[in-house]
Write a structure and sequence with these properties.
- By secondary structure, the protein is of the alpha/beta class.
- It has two domains: about 240 residues, Aldolase class I (TIM Barrel); about 70 residues.
- It is built from 13 helices and nine strands.
- Strands 1, 2, 3, 4, 5, 6, 7, 8 and 9 form a nine-stranded parallel β-sheet that branches.
- Helix 6 links the parallel strand 6 and strand 7.
- The radius of gyration is 20 Å and the shape is globular.
- The structure holds flavin mononucleotide.
Length: about 325
């Protein structure tokens, strides 16, 4: 199945608790080539007989384009049912085979599926035939260092089953988010040499220079950025500028705060919890002088008005 036209080579990683619709829209506007929802349970989607409004379990903006929804689960029929429900609203159906969290792997879902090639084969071949949108997959390399090449078999199966694109987070399940993924980018190179479908490289890309090096060293088609975009959606503009013109602007604190205000404005259109908005607020203050004092003040805010007052005051002090 043909993939949509991506806005750029640089994709926003799905991040549970972070990539809410307001944040994704901001990243999309700043040049993210593709945005993906947080991982979404196939059971949450299918547990009701009928769905009157898809926004009950997943929110998005029409302006966030192209956009992908990430599903996770084990059950094949439920995965298909969930994918059919969501496909009218998204350009891509992504399937999670990378999540290391215990409550996900205990269901045999996420990265645990790397050990179940036969099941994955059946899942992908049935899923691809059941939907009219391209199916993609995001994997980790393996379970531990001893099994760090599990991704190869899964990648072959995915390609043979008609999966349209594969993202590799260059870490094993056991590594969680620790260690330096850059030292494991060779896995992305090996994946690129193995399959003909597009490969998305992921893991510890923190700057446009890192992205350039990842592309050079691995030959990956696209680069996915996660944590480096937290509190810094502008990184997508920097990435695109660097690849188009060879240079990019750095942001001062006032500019960063302006992007937080934009995020706040976008949150008004969605049902986003205040605790999550506060987490985003913290992200935008990282690296700022007086940032830790500021974060203490943010922690005790009780509503958007209080939070806005703190940022307005800060903005006036630094411009
Ligand atoms: C807080 C957090 C939540 C995440 N949630 C998801 C998720 O829902 N789905 C997924 O495939 N990966 C998830 N990831 C993994 C990221 O997509 C990405 O693979 C990982 O952070 C490595 O990329 P980075 O070094 O650019 O952050 C999450 C990562 C973090 C830090």
């Amino acid at each position: 199945m043909k993939l949509p036209k991506f806005k750029s080579r640089f994709f926003l990683a799905p991040m549970s608790g972070i990539t809410d619709p307001a944040f994704r829209l901001l990243c999309s506007e700043l040049g993210a080539g593709l945005t993906t929802t947080e991982l979404t349970s196939i059971h949450a989607i299918t547990h009701k007989g009928t769905i009157s409004d898809i926004r009950e379990f997943v929110q998005y903006s029409e302006k966030e384009s192209p956009r992908s929804i990430q599903l996770f689960g084990f059950d094949i029929e439920k995965t298909i049912k969930a994918a059919k429900i969501v496909e009218p609203y998204f350009d891509i159906i992504d399937f999670n085979m990378g999540c290391p969290a215990d409550h996900i792997t205990a269901q045999q879902a996420g990265a645990a599926l790397l050990q179940k090639p036969e099941h994955v084969k059946e899942l992908f071949s049935k899923l691809v035939k059941s939907v009219d949108k391209p199916v993609t997959v995001k994997v980790r390399a393996g379970i531990s260092n001893d099994s760090c090449y599990l991704f190869k078999n899964i990648a072959r199966i995915a390609e043979e089953s008609g999966v349209s694109m594969i993202t590799l987070h260059a870490r094993t399940l056991k590594q969680g988010y620790s260690g330096n993924a850059q030292q494991q980018w060779t896995w992305i190179k090996e994946l690129k040499e193995l399959v003909s479908i597009p490969v998305v490289g992921n893991g510890d890309v923190k700057s446009p220079e890192d992205a350039e090096r990842m592309i050079k060293e691995t030959g990956c088609d696209y680069v996915m950025i996660g944590r480096a975009a937290q509190g810094n959606p502008y990184i997508f503009k920097q990435l695109n500028d660097y690849f188009e013109k060879g240079t990019y602007n750095t942001l001062n604190d006032a500019d960063r705060i302006s992007y937080f205000f934009k995020y706040l404005e976008y949150t008004k259109d969605y049902n986003i919890s205040f605790s999550r908005i506060k987490d985003h607020a913290m992200d935008y203050t990282k690296g700022m002088i007086g940032g830790s004092k500021l974060r203490k003040a943010i922690t005790i805010t009780k509503d958007i008005n209080e939070l806005t007052r703190i940022f307005n005051k800060l903005f006036k002090q630094i411009i």
